[in-house]
């Protein structure tokens, strides 16, 4: 069995079981003859069976991140983000079910989907992304009805495209990064140090399995952990510690009055890069076809970056919901939520550095960014 087929098979198994979990009580799901849960106990058992499949899918996708094809990396990254969101939504769904069980509300009278983060209809987009059933949108903004037909026009179009792309990536990284890091601004140095320390730990051990809570509450912890694992694999286990330490430095700078946008401009060097590539476009003796290839290549970068930003923002929204959960259900919940926010914030910032090809941010080197695309096409010997 080749790797590609194996990933698809695990993805399908995961999606089938998730759909079964969210289908109305006792109804046939159409997924390999399965039926939806018909009691709180049945829901807990199905969640328990889904958990190892979730872990298996995370590892299968993490393996694909080692592929040197930028398109495979991009698709896999979005899938891991969609999966992390799905696992968080499952955790929230199980939490509402656990509350109902604790309060003696019968399964037939429970309206979990109305009070949880999601339901089957809303979670379907996540699953379709994971299954490659919908194309991840990479629409390129139209800059004109036709390609440039002469070198002077091509030079101007390329310079405009580079400037717009660099500025947009900086803005998106700043906005989403700030949204993530602002969640932990209230933590002191000691607490931030604890959060960073979590990145080298197995949080499953930290969460544990409590004897004095129901199976559903334990399943809540389990799927929060599965989401956390997906994000760790996305950024890379070795890089996670560095990401945490770097994020703490940014947080301290922000507390001292700096804006994240200013911090990132110094790291991304967008103004310097824009000027250097503008000079290259003006002086290059490349052919018209090479300019057109550069314009198209740079135009694809911002939409690709935005796709990951969009899913990261969905995760941040879901994580915020978990702030309402009792410490009994989610031990060290405040620190774990802060940990996820820092990881997401650091990831979108590191990724932005990769998309602009900043020499000061080489943590991720997974895509040919703005500088590399232009120089590859316009630098002539």
Topology:
Elements: H1 3-22, H2 40-64, H3 70-102, H4 112-115, H5 120-130, H6 151-181, H7 189-198, H8 203-207, H9 215-235, H10 237-255, H11 260-268, H12 270-283, H13 288-299, H14 301-321, H15 333-356, H16 370-378
Helix pairs in contact: 1-2, 1-5, 2-3, 2-9, 3-5, 3-9, 3-14, 6-11, 6-12, 6-13, 6-14, 6-15, 7-10, 7-15, 9-10, 9-15, 10-15, 12-16, 13-16, 14-15
Protein described:
It is a single chain. The chain is an all-alpha fold and 381 residues long. It has one domain (3-134, 143-378). The chain has helices at 3-22, 40-64, 70-102, 112-115, 120-130, 151-181, 189-198, 203-207, 215-235, 237-255, 260-268, 270-283, 288-299, 301-321, 333-356, 370-378. Helix 1 packs antiparallel against helix 2, helix 6 (151-181) runs antiparallel to helix 15 and helix 9 (215-235) packs parallel to helix 15. The longest helix has 33 residues, at 70-102. The protein is globular. Residues 139-145 have low confidence and may be disordered.
């Amino acid at each position: 069995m080749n790797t590609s087929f194996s990933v698809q098979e695990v993805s399908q198994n995961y999606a089938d079981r998730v759909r079964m979990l969210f289908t109305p009580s006792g109804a046939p799901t159409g997924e390999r003859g399965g039926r939806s849960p018909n009691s709180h106990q049945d829901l807990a058992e199905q969640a328990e069976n889904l958990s190892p499949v979730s872990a298996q899918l995370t590892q299968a996708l993490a393996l694909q991140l080692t592929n040197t094809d930028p398109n495979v990396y991009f698709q896999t990254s979005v899938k891991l983000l969609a999966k992390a969101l799905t696992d968080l939504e499952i955790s929230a769904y199980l939490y509402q079910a656990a509350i109902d069980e604790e309060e003696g509300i019968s399964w037939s009278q429970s309206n979990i989907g109305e009070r949880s983060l999601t339901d089957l209809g809303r979670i379907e987009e996540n699953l379709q992304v994971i299954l490659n059933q919908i194309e991840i949108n990479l629409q390129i903004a139209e800059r004109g009805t036709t390609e440039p037909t002469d070198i002077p026009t091509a030079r101007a179009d390329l310079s405009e495209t580079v400037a717009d792309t660099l500025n947009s990536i900086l803005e998106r990284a700043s906005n989403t990064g700030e949204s993530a890091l602002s969640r932990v601004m209230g933590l002191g140095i000691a607490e931030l140090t604890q959060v960073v320390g979590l990145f080298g730990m197995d949080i499953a051990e930290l969460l544990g399995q409590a004897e004095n809570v129901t199976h559903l509450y334990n399943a809540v912890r389990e799927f929060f952990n599965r989401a956390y694992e997906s994000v760790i694999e996305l950024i890379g286990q070795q890089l996670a510690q560095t990401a945490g330490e770097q994020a703490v430095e940014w947080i301290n700078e922000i507390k001292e009055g700096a804006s994240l946008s200013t911090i990132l401009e110094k790291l991304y060097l967008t103004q310097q890069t824009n000027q250097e590539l503008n000079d290259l476009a003006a002086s290059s003796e490349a052919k018209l076809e090479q300019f057109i290839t550069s314009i198209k290549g740079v135009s694809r970068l911002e939409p690709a970056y935005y796709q990951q930003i969009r899913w990261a923002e969905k995760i941040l929204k879901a994580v915020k919901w978990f702030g309402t959960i009792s410490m009994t259900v989610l031990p060290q919940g405040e620190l774990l939520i802060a940990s996820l926010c820092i990881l997401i914030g650091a990831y979108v910032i590191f990724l932005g550095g990769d998309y602009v090809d900043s020499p000061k941010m080489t943590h991720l080197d997974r895509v040919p960014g703005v500088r590399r695309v232009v120089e590859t096409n316009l630098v002539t010997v």
